[in-house]
Specification:
The protein has about 400 residues and is α/β, with parallel strands linked by helices. The protein has 14 helices and 16 strands. Helix 7 (about 215-240) links the parallel strand 10 and strand 11. Bound molecules: NADP nicotinamide-adenine-dinucleotide phosphate and magnesium ion.
Length: about 400
C-alpha cells in the first residue's frame, strides 16, 4: 500500500515519562508505516524545556498559530519534587497553561465510548463533551479571614477617579470573604470557542450557570453567550438543525443524568473542574478521555486528558512490563490528523484517522485491552495486554481494515 501524503505539517509536541514511551510506539506501529508523516517537532519533555528556559513551549505554541493544528503528549508540570528530580533551573510553569494563554483557548473533553466499558449512568449512549472556561473566578480570587465585627466592602477605583462601592457584609463576628473576577475578553473567547466547536462537531450546546442567584456575575456570562449566539451563530446552528440553550446549573445536572448524551456542556471554571471529573469517571476511565484546546481564532491542539502516568514509568525504568492504556493518546493523533485532513481537503488522511479509531475501538471490543480496562469491563475473560502488546494488536486490526 502506498503511504498517505501530507501537504502541511502537524505541530508535534513530545512529552514526558510513560506517555513519551507510548508516543514513540504509536508513531512506529500505527502512523509511520501508513503515512508519510510530516510534523514540525518540538520536544516539550521536561529536560528540554529546562535546557531552553521553556522557550520551546512558546515556540511550539507559535508554531500552532502558524499551522493551525497540533498534537501534544502529556507533560510534567513541575513541583518541588520535580525540581529536585530533574535538577531544574526553575519551577517552570505548566506547558498547558502557557499554551492555553497564548492560543486563548477553551478545553473540550470527550470520552471514547466502547462496548464493554459501560457508563455508570445507564441512559448515556453518546459522549458528553465538557467545555470548561479556563480563566478566573475562584481560581484567581482574593480571600480574607475576618476576625471580628466590622464592615466588608467591594470597592472599585477607576483610573478616572470614579469609585464604585458595594457592601459585602456587616460582620457582627468572625467570618470569611472572597473577591473574584472575570474579563469580558475571556468570556467572549469562551463563548466563541464553544459555538464554533459545536458547529465543527455538529453537536447541540448547553450552557449552565446560576444567574438567578448571581444576578450580575453569572448573568453577564449568560448575556455574553446569548449576544454571541444571536450575532454570529444562530443562522448557522439553525441551518444544521442544532440548538443552543442556557439553563440553570442545577437544572442542567438533572437533565444531564437523564439524557442520552451527544451534546457539549459548557461550564464556568469551577463547575467545569468538578463536572468534568464527574463525567470522566461516570463514563468509565480517565485513560479513555480525549481533550482538545480550541482557540476562538481557529487553532486546534489535541491531547489526552490524563497525565504522564508516572507510576507506570518507574516500573518501566525498573525493567518491569507495563500495561498503560494508549487510547487517549492514539485519539489525540487521530483528532489532529483528521483536522489536518479537513483543512487541507485530504480525504485519505481523514479516512485513515477514522479507520485507526475504528481499529482501536474494535480491538477493545474483541476483548483485547490494557489492565485498567480489564478491571472494569463487562466483556468476559478479557485478554490483558502490555502497553506495546495493545498497540501491536491495534495495528493488526488496522491492517485488516485497510
Ligand atoms: P496521571 O498520569 O493522570 O495518572 C494517575 C493514575 O491514573 C495512574 O497512576 C494510573 O493509575 C491512572 N492512569 C492515568 N492514565 C492512565 C493510562 N493511560 N493507562 C492506565 N492508567 C492510567 O497522573 P499522575 O501520575 O499523578 O501525574 C503524572 C504527571 O502528569 C504529573 O507530573 C503531572 O504534572 C502531569 N499531568 C500532565 C497533564 C497534561 O500534560 N495534560 C495532565 C495531568 C497531569 P494506576 O497507577 O492505579 O494504574
Ligand atoms: Mg479537577
Amino acid at each position: 500500500m502506498e503511504k498517505i501524503k501530507m501537504t502541511i505539517p502537524l505541530v508535534e509536541m513530545d512529552g514526558d515519562e510513560m506517555t513519551r514511551i507510548l508516543w514513540q510506539m504509536i508513531k512506529e506501529e500505527l502512523l509511520l508505516p501508513f503515512i508519510e508523516l510530516q510534523t514540525e517537532y518540538y520536544d516539550l519533555g521536561l529536560e528540554h524545556r529546562n535546557a531552553t528556559n521553556d522557550q520551546v513551549t512558546v515556540d511550539a505554541a507559535n508554531a500552532t498559530k502558524k499551522y493551525g493544528v497540533a498534537v501534544k503528549c502529556a507533560t510534567i508540570t513541575p513541583n518541588a519534587a520535580r525540581v529536585k528530580e530533574y535538577n531544574l533551573k526553575e519551577m517552570w510553569k505548566s506547558p498547558n497553561g502557557t499554551i492555553r494563554a497564548m492560543l486563548d483557548g477553551t478545553v473540550f473533553r470527550a470520552p471514547i465510548l466502547v462496548k464493554g466499558i459501560e457508563p455508570y449512568v445507564k441512559t448515556w449512549k453518546k459522549p458528553i463533551v465538557m467545555a470548561r472556561h479556563a480563566y478566573g473566578d475562584v481560581y484567581k480570587a482574593s480571600e480574607m479571614r475576618i476576625m471580628g465585627p466590622g464592615t466588608c466592602e467591594l470597592v472599585f477605583t477607576g483610573e478616572d477617579g470614579s469609585v464604585q462601592r458595594e457592601t459585602i457584609h456587616q460582620f457582627a463576628g468572625p467570618g470569611i470573604v472572597q473577591g473574584m473576577h472575570n474579563l469580558d475578553d475571556s468570556i467572549y473567547s469562551f463563548a466563541h470557542s464553544c459555538f464554533s466547536y459545536a458547529l465543527d462537531q455538529k453537536l447541540d450546546l448547553w450552557f449552565a450557570a446560576k444567574d438567578t442567584i448571581s444576578k450580575k456575575y453569572d448573568h453577564h456570562f449568560k448575556d455574553v453567550f446569548q449576544e454571541v449566539y444571536e450575532k454570529e451563530y444562530q443562522t448557522k446552528f439553525e441551518a444544521l438543525g442544532l440548538t443552543y440553550f442556557y439553563t440553570l446549573i442545577d437544572d442542567a445536572v438533572a437533565r444531564v443524568v437523564k439524557s442520552e448524551g451527544g451534546y457539549i456542556w459548557a461550564c464556568k471554571n469551577y463547575d467545569g473542574d468538578v463536572m468534568s471529573d464527574l463525567i470522566a469517571t461516570a463514563f468509565g476511565s480517565l485513560a479513555m478521555m480525549t481533550s482538545v484546546l480550541v482557540s476562538p481564532h481557529g487553532y486546534y491542539e489535541y491531547e489526552a486528558a490524563h497525565g504522564t502516568v508516572q507510576r507506570h514509568y518507574y516500573k518501566h525504568l525498573n525493567g518491569e512490563e507495563t500495561s498503560t492504556n494508549s487510547m487517549a493518546t492514539i485519539f489525540a493523533w487521530t483528532g489532529a490528523l483528521r483536522k489536518r485532513g479537513e483543512l487541507d481537503q485530504n480525504q485519505q488522511l481523514m479516512s485513515f484517522a477514522d479507520k485507526l479509531e475504528q481499529a482501536a475501538i474494535s480491538t477493545i471490543e474483541e476483548g483485547k485491552m490494557t489492565k485498567d480496562l480489564a478491571l472494569i469491563t463487562t466483556v468476559e475473560n478479557p485478554v490483558v495486554l502490555s502497553s506495546q502488546g495493545f498497540i501491536v494488536e491495534v495495528r493488526k486490526t488496522l491492517e485488516a481494515i485497510l
